[in-house]
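Researcher: Structure prediction, please.
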Amino acid sequence: QVQLVESGGGSVQVGGSLRLSCKASGNTYSYNCMGWFRRGSGKEREGVAAIYVASGRTYYADSMKGRFTISQDNAKNTVYLQMNNQEPEDTATYYCAAGGDLLCALRPRDWRYWGQGTQVTVSS
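Model: Predicted structure follows.
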């Protein structure tokens, strides 16, 4: 089993920045990728970014490129999501996930482990 705990959510104004963290524990050798997903009010869960743990290669949803950066600290079993120049449309619950296929495709159904989520609210 793998446990994922997110932190760093909160409220930010338009144009501001936040960094989310996700610490993994348990059987951290049982997955290839870690990633971030989000679900806004009334919307489906969508992929934001992913990282292949062994190589550090990163993947982003097309709409997230440029403002979001995923990174990791393998020594801490922690993955980060840096979010810059935030927009009201970024308001959502952000979920950390572990699993994925060999290309870390951002399809929620391919990810086995999920955190509880952390709320991000962007206000104007």
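Model: The first strand starts at residue 2 and ends at 7.
Researcher: Thanks, that helps.
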